[in-house]
Write a structure and sequence with these properties.
Number of strands: 0
Order of helices and strands: HHHHHHHHHHHHHHHHHHHHHHHHHH
Strand content: under 5%
Structural class: mainly alpha
Largest sheet: none
Length: 405
């Protein structure tokens, strides 16, 4: 009997490993993707459980292929979706970038439990809800927050806007993005004004310095009623003080050692003191807290708002500038940029609009701020104390003590 040929004694060549696994993963994903008319909920759930087990122990490429396969679905089993979304960014990216139907609850889990790369992709999605935004900004990552601000499909809650406004003192790059958001409220903008650069301040004044004419027309008949009641209702008194046309405080003038606000400003040219700053504030119809903030501002635009709102002449700006010991000219004899901006602001602002700004400052700095925004203002003031003269520092310390109280 002849011996078998040599090649017949060799083992059959083995097939490449992994083909069966890849094929099964693909089939399971196909079943998961079937419409409800082809597979019922229990069959889909059972298939999803099996698919999750295979993907969890499988190769990253299997998970990447599955994620890409599921991108266009309107209904993805939660167990599969959660596994893929919280995987490495290469796996999660297809779904985070192009997955149209991902529940907010899953995106919130990813925002809290995954990486900054995951949060960046969430921030860049076509639509991002308020709840998801709140979760994404918890990590306080500046790059992610800037992406959110630039994304027109993002909806910010009032709390989120407030948190970003407070953070903008440390991250001024947020300010231009915030100013483009429709969710930004005047109270937020006028707080952020204090640490904004001159260009952003100009935008704030242009956008939010609105007339109160509609309010004045609507509430004109309320003033006689409040007067008849002796202005005893504090809520009515506070609201009407914001609305009324008159800015100067006549009651304060009756108690003042000065004949007018103009006289107090003229007296300040020999040197601003804490008492005189408070007196000018009272005569201007604002609290000393607000006045201290205006007088210690390094840029000067608030002085223009104060003068225009109270009917002081343009020359009063120069008088207050000298009172605060600020340079009027540079070494070449030219007007300093800060004083020039202040004078331009005075020229451009209408009286009624300047009053709106001033009253918002007075209102927000005295009662309308949350602890986060108060802390942002107070910390910035204390950090800047060394930059100011002795009278200015006295006013600043008064401001800080008011906030602490």
């Amino acid at each position: 009997m002849a011996e078998p040929a040599f090649q017949d004694q060799l083992p059959a060549p083995a097939l490449p490993l992994g083909r069966a696994r890849r094929a099964l993963v693909k089939r399971l994903a196909d079943v998961v993707c079937l419409p409800s008319s082809r597979v019922n909920a229990f069959e889909r759930a059972m298939t999803a459980d099996l698919l999750v087990e295979m993907l969890r122990e499988g190769e990253p490429q299997d998970r990447i292929r599955t994620a890409r396969r599921l991108v266009g679905l309107t209904e993805i089993p939660t167990s599969v979706l959660r596994l893929l979304l919280r995987d490495d960014i290469e796996v999660a990216a297809p779904l985070l970038e192009d997955g149209t139907i991902i529940p907010d609850s899953e995106l919130i889990l990813v925002a809290h439990g995954a990486t900054i790369e995951h949060r960046r992709l969430i921030a860049a999605r076509r639509e991002v809800s308020e709840l998801v935004v709140d979760a994404v900004i918890d990590a306080a990552e500046s790059d992610v927050i800037e992406l959110l601000l630039r994304n027109t499909g993002v909806r910010f809650s009032a709390t989120a806007i407030e948190r970003i406004v407070a953070a903008s003192r440390e991250h001024p790059r947020y300010i231009p993005g915030l100013l483009k958001r429709s969710e930004l409220r005047p109270s937020h903008a006028y707080v952020m004004f204090w640490w904004s650069d001159p260009e952003c301040r100009r935008i704030i004044l242009q956008r939010f310095a609105v007339s109160r004419e509609v309010l004045q027309d609507a509430s004109g008949d309320i003033f006689p009623l409040a007067t008849a009641e002796g202005w005893q209702d504090p809520l009515v008194r506070k609201a009407l003080q914001f609305i009324e046309r008159r800015q100067r405080n006549r009651a304060a003038l009756d108690k003042s050692p000065y004949d007018s606000l103009d006289a107090a400003v003229a007296a300040a040219q020999s040197g601003m003191t804490r008492e005189l700053a408070s007196e000018i504030s009272y005569l201007s119809g604002i609290k000393p807290t607000t006045g201290a903030k205006i007088f210690t501002d390094a840029c000067g635009e608030p002085l223009a708002i104060l003068c225009k709102a109270t009917g002081l002449p343009r020359s009063a700006i120069t008088a207050l500038w000298r009172a605060l010991r600020r340079p009027e000219e540079d070494s070449a004899g030219r007007i300093t940029p800060a004083l020039e901006r202040t004078l331009i602001t005075y020229d451009l602002m209408a009286v009624d609009r300047a009053q709106t700004v001033l009253r918002y400052w007075n209102w927000s700095l005295s009662s309308a701020l949350t602890p986060a925004l108060v802390r942002a203002i107070r910390e910035g003031d204390e950090e800047a104390l060394d930059e100011y003269s002795t009278p200015q520092r006295a006013a600043m310390l008064a401001l800080s003590s008011d906030f602490r109280g």
